[in-house]
Design goal:
Number of helices: 30
Number of strands: 30
Largest sheet: 8 strands, mixed
Structural class: alpha+beta
Strand content: 15-25%
Radius of gyration: 30 Å
Helix content: 40-55%
Shape: globular
Amino acid sequence: MLCRRLIARSPSRAFPASPLPSAQAPTWFRHRASALRLAASFRSRLRKGGEEEAAARKTGRRGWEWRRRSAARAQCALSLQRPSVQGGGEGGRGGWRQQEEREDPRQIGCPEGPSPATPLSLLGQAARVRPPPPLLLLSAAGGRRLPFSARARWASPFAPTAAAESSSAAASFAAAATFASFSSTARLFRSFSAAMPEKRPFERLPAEVRPINYGLCLKPDLIDFTFEGKLEAAVEVGQATNQIVMNCADIDIITASYAPEGDEEIHATGFNYQNEDEKVTLSFPSTLQTGMGTLKIDFVGELNDKMKGFYRSKYTTPSGDTRFAAVTQFEATDARRAFPCWDEPAIKATFDISLVVPKDRVALSNMNVTERRPYPDDENLVEVKFARTPVMSTYLVAFVVGEYDFVETRSTDGVLVRVYTPVGKAEQGKFALEVAAKTLPFYKDYFNVPYPLPKIDLIAIADFAAGAMENWGLVTYRETALLIDPKNSCSSSRQWVALVVGHELAHQWFGNLVTMEWWTHLWLNEGFASWIEYLCVDHCFPEYDIWTQFVSADYTRAHELDALDNSHPIEVNVGHPSEVDEIFDAISYSKGASVIRMLHNYIGDEDFRKGMHLYLTKFQHKNAATEDLWESLEHASGKPVAAVMSTWTKQMGFPLVYVEAEQQEDDKVLKLVQKKFCASGPYSGEDNPLWMIPISICTSEDPAHVKMQVLMDKPELTLVLKDVKPEHWVKLNLGTVGFYRTQYSLEMLESLLPAIRDLSLPPVDRLGLQNDLFSLARAGIISTVEVLKVMEAFVNEPNYTVWSDLSCNLGILSTLLSHTDFYEEIQAFVRDIFSPIGEKLGWDPKPGEGHLDALLRGLVLGKLGKAGHKATLEEARRRFKDHVEGKHILSADLRSPVYVTVLKHGDSTTLDTMLKLHKQADMQEEKNRIERVLGAISQAELIQKVLTFALSEEVRPQDTVSVIGGVAGGSKQGRKAAWKFVRDNWEELYNRYQGGFLISRLIKLSVDGFAIDKMAAEVKAFFESHPAPSAERTIQQCCENILLNAAWLKRDAENVHQYLLQRKASPTAV
């Protein structure tokens, strides 16, 4: 099999450099340089065939066999023209080999599909990927008082108090037995989890030489997929040295020299590539003295197809031709694939960028164009020069060359805003333009710091791994994260675009103007942007009720991951670049956003804004660490911000707060205990981690306002609530803001249930309460049956976000019970729960309905359709038939529920029709909508057809993961087939995603739903023989989840079955 690239690198290699300028270089060197260019020009050709080769032939170039022979001659020339190869680094000398590549960002899946409110995570979540994430939900008990037959599981941690009562004594005994089973499960799980591999040795770049300004000119070849580059960097030598160490990956340096200010040029005599560390050392024959000088480097590289570095993106013109754009994705450590540089966030410099491009192409970079002139060597090319950037980090540099239309406006503070779209689709950029034009002034006012650049461009890229990337002044997006068709885009897509735009533009201040000092502080960039995007969308679209959606999209998502033993602290020490990808996850994004939200609530908006202004002005154009932000916020608020927040960012996990109440005359005395919450059951460790928890308390007298607020800074706390009558309920964590779970005593919980039924408890608190109960059941602390009883109270729930969270929790439970023979019973439960709200909503919008009604209708109909609700299935089939025949086109908000319903209960004709709709779709949103539901098909041979389709040319590389994940989440049979498909096609999939975030997501979606112990062993064994270093933590988390699912199933399956049977036989069932 052919290598991914012809000139792959050995682990470390070194070439002598010419001691003369290229024009005067000896013949052998000029031949070597030509060979390098020639070989580079054919790297990608060896991987391409089919339509790309056919397209290349149309250009008049010679055939494939000529290219193959020429490439081989080029490689031979390289070996002949390499007089010496120095050792150094792992691997020493050696043959040519492939070099691993890295990709970037964030995104997760939910058994019930994506939710409209997704954290960014994935979503610049930095380079931000995220199709809407999973939403989880909370509950109450149907119109009756909960019996709570399994009271023993609700054992109070107040042993002395509980022991005083005979009933509590029995509870303690039962709890002890339950705890023993938890302990054995935990031991099994912990013994199964391998320790994280030792971190690879790594050193940051030496400080002897630092850049001041990069003068960079790049000339991409959009036919041969290569580029030539010239770098003239103004540098400062701080300490005398005879070598310069830079970052460099997948680039061949041709010549390099250094000219001290006012002195003669010194030519490098060797280039030593340390490929494992992605570095190159330029050696000079004499010492470079301290002072200023100019470093010049000529180099060549490849426009790769890995969606990182300087890469090619395939698109189709309105006339149907296939063409390629040259685009960039540099975060976290891929600027080094476009030009040799000091690719660390703390090593900032200014950039003077110019691009040599075809004259009929659009060329964009971070700054505005200052000059566009004919290129002297080719009349078909132009040289485009851009203004000098502010001081910035390399990962924020960007350039794009391609064919685009645009729409533009100016914000109220005078910034030129443009949205670039595929040709002919400018209309689809107007919504994002509107959002961006509102967002810039909002952030300017909020931070009291103006946007520092003259323009901001937002551009849709066809092939893009992340959701978006916050490059300063040139923000890149997936098409689905930027483009909105007024007629064919659904409500959830509009909301998604608004969130992503808000996230990326927040980074223009928080991340770009002030940048993290090192990747250890990545969470600060991403967590902050993932929080403030909601603040921005709430400002622009208050009708979205976006903060309630935050709880289901980010807050609960972070809780789910952080409860695992294989989670990690928010702040993770990062060394080698290969470690960076592991922290682009829900901890950095969603937990980061959640603790920032908690902090904002704790110190108040006014002091928070003052602190943010102080931080941004103090560190603008510089780098900062987490502690710098805490210092600014502490100065503004006078509260112990650093002490409080260090307990949330430096240790893994979060607390479970147990609370019980005692009435003393007209007062209620609350006793609180905090313990670490673990997905495997009650915490049994000896270290007893402690959090400083901002506790807020409300009562039934005024559910929307705080009765008491206190900082819990010790394991146990007693509070007295004055003038609270016995019949009044008490609730902790008003607004579900504190990042902890709450377990109430039985009496306190039962007193809260009427407030859920009569809706006097606000939606976000109803959601939070039910989600806590569901998580306690998953951990085995309470019975799953009791949670099902609570869920029945939600049949008349009006709030979309509460329903979406409930839907996701029932999806998780349905996936678990698909491993039993009573799966149909849980589907009947789903039908009973969702039928009343489905009948109330109907299929068609009613006058006066808004954004959230449209989201709720799609959610409910999709849930009923998948569960086999007869009336919903019949209507979905009728509407689908009319849609396909063109009689009545489905509204965008109804397409997903209709598609998933007809596929779930469809046959080969249904699948063929859906694939035809996919092929005909002109919008990427519609293609993605279809791709995400194809896995709902149930027949084995059709499941295989969908999996084969996932790797076809019909599916963009970044979307293959969604298709395979949809199959894995569609059914038990699909889950097995998807895992086998991943194993059978592992080499192709791993080479496609090269160890980046998408490979982690693929693994998670493929195996997370298993619930058999032996599957954890199988997954572990497979990845021991097929290493995926950047997904190591994800693999461990998946194995842990499989074991937890298996334990949950063994513990509660029979009780759930009996409850569902009794309920089915009862005339009082919903």
